[in-house]
Structure formats: structure tokens, C-alpha cells
Design a protein that fits this description.
Order of helices and strands: EEHHHEEEHEHEE
Strand content: 35-45%
Oligomer: single chain
CATH superfamily: Gcn5-related N-acetyltransferase (GNAT)
Distance between the termini: 20 Å
Largest sheet: 8 strands, mixed
Structural class: alpha+beta
Mean pLDDT: 98
Bound molecules: coenzyme A
Radius of gyration: 15 Å
Shape: globular
Strand order of the largest sheet: 1-2-3-4-5-6-8-7
CATH topology: Aminopeptidase
């Protein structure tokens, strides 16, 4: 997959993104807003583990966000199983140096359209940590509805916090 959005390109990950990925991802302010599956510090060995995981996936569901010629973030979905087979968890992050330029709004809009049109899912959901209003704003701009508050559901960075559940349905 490759979608050119002007200021960024959403595309498949390549193994030669290794150094750029580690550089962009090794940031506490990125890690702080993501689940425990995103390591910190983030090394090139973590990037290799990520590429190995992608290679084992049955279909591509995670993509790089390229800015100015190099991978600077990630976006993708985790497909649900069993009764949740028609739902997917939506996640994304961007290198801090590119924040505030509308890049993630463009990427979330394009990838959520793509996933709902091309994969066999009807619902995309994203639980956002309560301290992350920028991410909530991105989702609102992309047509996700605020469905509720998952009270004290997340323990991150030593704090017990609420998550706000956003979702978009086909
Ligand atoms: C959240 C994140 C993805 C946003 O990416 P981005 O490219 O900076 O987002 P955009 O520029 O497209 O839009 C950000 C919006 O949030 C708003 N915003 C930023 N900080 C804000 C704050 N503290 N309070 C309220 N709104 C805020 C911006 O003004 C903008 O909205 P606007 O266009 O209406 O002005 C990025 O900061 C990031 O990667 N954070 C770390 C990882 C993360 O949080 N991932 C999401 C997990 S749910």
C-alpha cells in the first residue's frame, strides 16, 4: 500500500527504515501515549523485532508514515478475533519534530477510509489516554465518535488514568 498525502506518505515498512524508526520512536513523549507493547528506550534491535513481527502477519495491517523522505511514524490496526472479528483497534504515532502540522489528521483519515473499505471490518476503535487531547482532536476531525470513558483502565508511567474510547463505524 502507498498513499501520497502531500506532507506525508503512508506506505509499507521496509527493513531499511531501521535507523529512522529507532530515531523517531525513541522518545518518552511518544511512548507515554502508547501501550506497553511500544518499548522505551527504542533501539534498532526493537525495530528489527518489529519487522520480524510484521513478516509473520497474515496480511499487512501496519504502515510507516514517511515525512521528507524518511519513516517518521507508524499507523495501523490490530484485527479483533472471535466475536470481535469485525472490529479493529486503531493506533498511530509520529516523531515529535513533526507534531502540529496536520500530518496525523491526514494519515488517520486516509488509513481509516482504507481499512474500512478494504479489510473485512466495520468498526475501528481507539482508546486514548485521558492526558492526550491532541489525539482526541485528531480522531474527532476524522469522524470518530467519543463513546465513553474507560475509568481508571490504564496504568501508565506510574499513574492510574482514564482512557477515552473513540470509534468510527462503516
Ligand atoms: C497525537 C499525535 C498523533 C498528533 O499528531 P499531529 O500530526 O501533531 O496531529 P495534527 O497536527 O494532525 O492535529 C493535532 C490537533 O490537536 C490539537 N492539539 C494539540 N495539542 C493539543 C492540546 N494540548 N489540547 C487540545 N488540542 C491540542 C491541535 O491544535 C490539532 O487540532 P486543530 O487542527 O484543530 O488545531 C502526536 O502528537 C503523537 O504521535 N503523539 C504520541 C503518540 C500518540 O499520542 N499516539 C496516539 C495514541 S491514542
Amino acid at each position: 500500500m502507498q498513499i501520497d498525502l502531500g506532507p506525508c506518505i503512508v506506505r509499507d515498512w521496509h527493513r531499511d527504515d531501521r535507523a529512522a524508526l529507532a530515531r523517531a520512536a525513541n522518545d518518552r513523549s511518544v511512548w507515554r501515549n502508547l501501550t506497553h507493547r511500544f518499548p522505551h528506550p527504542y533501539t534498532e534491535a526493537d525495530a528489527d523485532r518489529w519487522f520480524a513481527l510484521l513478516a509473520r502477519m497474515p496480511e499487512p495491517t501496519h504502515w510507516a508514515i514517511e515525512v521528507a523522505g524518511e519513516a517518521a511514524g507508524g499507523i495501523g490496526v490490530e484485527l479483533g478475533e472471535g466475536v470481535y472479528a469485525k472490529s479493529a483497534h486503531f493506533g498511530y504515532w509520529l516523531a515529535r519534530r513533526h507534531w502540529g502540522r496536520g500530518i496525523m489528521t491526514a494519515a488517520v483519515r486516509a488509513v481509516s477510509d482504507y481499512v474500512l473499505a478494504r479489510l473485512d471490518v466495520v468498526r475501528l476503535e481507539a482508546p486514548v489516554f485521558a492526558w492526550n487531547p491532541a489525539s482526541m482532536r485528531v480522531l474527532e476531525k476524522c469522524g470518530f465518535a467519543r463513546e465513553g470513558v474507560l475509568r481508571q483502565s490504564v496504568f501508565k508511567d506510574g499513574e492510574l488514568i482514564d482512557a477515552v474510547l473513540y470509534a468510527r463505524v462503516r
